[in-house]
Amino acid sequence: MDHQQLYNVNVLSQDVLATPTEIKRRVPLTARAEQAVLAGRHTVEQILDRQDHRLMVVVGPCSIHDPVAALDYARRLKALSDEIGDTITVVMRVYFEKPRTTTGWKGLINDPHMNDSFDIEHGLQMARKVLVDINELGLPAGTEALDPISPQYLGDLVAWSAIGARTTESQTHREMASGLSTPVGFKNGTDGGLQVAINALLSVSKPHSFLGINAEGNVAIVRTRGNGYGHIVLRGGAKGPNYDSVTISLVEKELARHSLPANIVVDCSHANSNKDPSLQPLVLQDAVAQIVEGNRSIVGVMLESHLHAGSQPIPSDLSRLAYGVSVTDGCIDWESTAQALREARARLKDVLPGRVAHRPAAEVRPLRA
């Protein structure tokens, strides 16, 4: 009997990938980068525990396609972070994997050469190098955990993780997130509904056992303790934006009903800006206004920002790519980003400390051991 008629019927080839240990050996974690990762994770946890009054801002390109431009952006962001750091803690958005509704470029890890060659091993090395360089600046990084294997290669360089709207409902991603070493934000579903994210938060906090790989690339049964730092990210949906004060109040009530911490991150992009990147600063202004008026649940925001505004298609001749312009979702430019964050800092610097000072002790969760 020809067993090939029974399995791998639609598989053209299988290339053996270097193990996580080998990729980490080629692009090692430096001492300075390690400190930035640990400090970034601790700060985000402190914010979620209301022991740090600052607002978390996850900001950066929709996706990373040019390491040079990414580091250029990171240097500017680090300087801005130092300037506004008494009020806002900055995490650079460093996304390497892009979920696609149909087809399209899947990101630096999957296709680093942007020519459908899918040199994933090289992409993993490039991604690690970008993360090391950014953390070397003292700037923590956040990313979307999309492929369940990627965290074994990159997880030691990430301070905050997101589970996207398309995968929040996925059991595989909930299991994976329960074992991530970072705080993890779950986005509401693409329809704008909250229930899938609420269910994810309940799931991720519990222990799980599932199939995965270990550092040596062997298939393993992964057993997790659960992640106590899950939180919801509002990104709007098919029905429109969901960052308004009425929706925020409803989310607070739903979180309370399930005995979940009232920690909400507002994604200023996607449906919350009606897919118009230039509207992101207005969404940020609204979130800031809610905090000024007494909101205590908005702990962070997300912005898609690059060196230059807009987006561009990927040309067949890559030399024609414009420098510092997104190849996925459109972004606001650097000048608009810096202005928006400076304005937010000015409005919040005297307000945010009171949110911690007046928070009832019973609502403060003890730090994870």
Give a quick set of tags describing it.
single chain, 369 residues, alpha/beta, two-stranded antiparallel ribbon, 10 strands, 35% helix, globular
Largest β sheet strand count, sense and barrel closure: 8 strands, parallel, barrel
Estimate the global geometry from the Cα principal axes.
globular
Approximate strand percentage: 5-15%
Widest sheet: strand ordering:
1-2-3-4-5-8-9-10
The DSSP helix count reads 11
The SSE order reads HHEHEHEHEHEHEEEHEHEHH
Cα-atom radius of gyration = 20 Å
> What is the helix content?
25-40%
Category from helices, strands and their pairing: alpha/beta
Number of strands: 10
What's the pLDDT, averaged over the residues?
94
Q: Could you give the distance between the termini?
A: 56 Å
Q: Ranges with pLDDT <50 over ≥5 residues?
A: 360-369
Task: Write structural notes for this entry.
The protein has 369 residues and is an alpha/beta fold. The chain is globular, with a radius of gyration of 20 Å. It is built from eleven helices and ten strands. An eight-stranded parallel beta barrel has the order 1-2-3-4-5-8-9-10, surrounded by eight helices.
Report a brief summary of the structure.
The chain has 369 residues and is an alpha/beta fold. It has eleven helices and ten strands.
